[in-house]
Design goal:
The protein has three helices and five strands. It is an alpha+beta fold. The chain has a single domain, classed as Nucleic acid-binding proteins (OB fold (Dihydrolipoamide Acetyltransferase, E2P)). A hairpin with a 3-residue loop joins strand 1 (56-68) and strand 2 (72-79). The longest helix has 22 residues, at 2-23.
Length: 170
Amino acid sequence: MKAKRYITHLLCLVTLTGLVMTGCAAVISQEALKEVDQSVRFEELLENPHAHRGRVVLLGGEIIKTENLPDKTVIIMLQRSLGYNQKPDSKGESKGRFIVSAPGFLDPAIYRPHRKITVVGVVVGKEIRSLGEIEYAYPIISKRELHVWPSEDSPKEPRVHFGIGIGIGL
């Protein structure tokens, strides 16, 4: 009897530990994070992308627009500082915009405006595009790893309800 209870407690502890560790897992691999040049600040990158060409950076932000080209996808981003677990923080000011270049096709229905992403990539240069009445120099980041965060417009209520009786939903 004691052995059975001990095994049950041990299994519960192992399961709980696994769930906690999964909840704290980084969204970008340790291998990619080791390559990131922590000395590159976004303001410096925005000011002179060519000076940082070839460096690996970790950036995050909100998608403004996704464009599919024949051999790659271009994602125009609004930079946001990274918070807990490398998630872009919606609060506070953005320092500017940048472009993520990814080989192949990325579905614009998934990579849609206002979705948050975290990316590790190589600085490859800049692209000048019209932004309203001005010309804006976007740093271009060639994607190595990318994480799309769950949409924040998803329902906040739990999807499973328990209860007794008749429920009506609209």
